[in-house]
Amino acid sequence: MSSKKEILTPSAKIALIPIVVVIVTLTLSVFIYDAQPHIALFLGAATAGLTAFLYGFSWDTIQSGFTESIHRAIPSLIILLIIGMIIGVWIASGIVPALIYYGFNILLPNWFLPSILILCSIMSVITGSSWTTVGTIGVAAIGVGQGLGIPAPAIAGTVVSGAFFGDKLSPMSDSTNLTPSVLDVDLYVHIKHMLYSTVPSFIIALILYTLLGIFLTEGSIDTDFIANYQTIIRDNFTLSPWLLLPPTAVIGLILFKIPAIPSLIVGVVLGGFIQVAIQGQSVNEFFHILYDGFTISTGEEEIDALLSRGGMASMYNVVSLALIALAFGGIMNKCKMLESIVLKMSKFVKSTGNLVATTLGTSILLNIFSANQYLAVILPGQMFEDCYKGQGLKLKNLTRALEGGGTLTAPLIPWNSSGVFVYSVLSINPLVYAPYAIICWLTCIIVGLFGYRDITMEKSYKKE
């Protein structure tokens, strides 16, 4: 193949071929046959590779597209596996059951949803990890909320809202660091500018969750179920102040800016120590739980389903989907097909409002069709940088839009890695909890309105 062909950008019509394949196969597999989205994305990646090869790209270029994309995500994939281990060990060691047990005593039914929103937001800001928050507080919240008679989708949506809201405002979050770095915007300038849209979103969500909590819990509290739940936890786990050691240590390490991977590993090790020393389980059980997760049989189906989870193996479905999605997005990016589609959309960005709306829409579409929130931030950032400069807008306006459209909508898409992770941990389909994940979609709307109403759209560059 000639090098001249390899530097050409495919037309938008050619670039849309793999996306059409993904749309058709996803519709068939997910919505009609109720199958996993892996094969649809695999066929999309294969179609993207074949399309690029026929257009003139070499196999080396195509291969580098998916290998480079996967290479960048390896730390995140390792974190996924560690989170799987920490979920299993923290349940087996009694940490999560203790949170559920005391949560029944502390959390009032009518105030449960707003309380969970605040707790998840704080945890996520401190740790910088929405996934860690979902895997720990989220699991406990599902157990407590169901005992209080609150539907699981509402609980899951609240957990996701708080976890991803806090993640966006945390200077330790990988995605929050990535987004401004793409456009050379200062991290704290980026976070401060996001407050204009995320704080109103949080306040509105807090009010709505309060009203929703009152409506959902009216006359529906099952006190017998709660008492039975607490009895089962007492019968199967030893409750001790030592159970606070692993989560406290993890939070402390992250506050001292220790990277996520070693901090989470400390959480796994301390959880194993508690499991053996306090719960009286064997080292052999600890190693098996690390891989296969924790299982329990209490005779109560709902409790068994809630507490039987975790382990490295539980994350394989998420990791495999992430690898395929990264391959698909990497090929589309490396072979300039995504660039072609985004450039085609540039004619819609003549006004500030349309520019912000197009940025949001592009990020959401990339979240859907590449199933990769990092690509949903990186590519539109690179593509629309000159457009924002041309309209005399500071680039922090762009980074805010990228977070609103790219990062916050990722957990609402069933085949996106974030959506699959939440599904695997909380057992609630993203399409079911999405209406309740208020902050995730409301922030996107607020950012778009700010663009059209010219609110906090700070100027700096002369119009070009």
Low-pLDDT parts are 1-6
Overall shape: it is globular
What structural class results from the helix and strand content? mainly alpha
What's the story with the biggest beta sheet? none
What is the number of E strands? 0
Q: What is the chain-wise order of helices and strands?
A: HHHHHHHHHHHHHHHHHHHHHHH
Describe the structure concisely.
The chain is mostly helical and 464 residues long. The protein contains 23 helices and no strands. The protein has a domain of 243 residues.
Question: Can you describe what's shown?
Answer:
This is Transporter (NhaC family). GO terms for molecular function: antiporter activity. Pfam families: Na_H_antiporter. With 464 residues, the chain is mainly alpha-helical. The two termini are 38 Å apart. The N terminus is likely disordered. Helix 4 crosses helix 14. It is globular. It has a domain of 243 residues. It is built from 23 helices and no strands.
Topology:
Blueprint: H1 3-6, H2 12-32, H3 38-55, H4 59-92, H5 95-106, H6 112-127, H7 130-147, H8 152-168, H9 174-182, H10 187-217, H11 223-236, H12 245-255, H13 260-277, H14 283-292, H15 301-307, H16 316-334, H17 337-344, H18 352-369, H19 375-390, H20 395-407, H21 417-426, H22 430-433, H23 438-453
List keywords for this structure.
464 residues, mainly alpha, globular
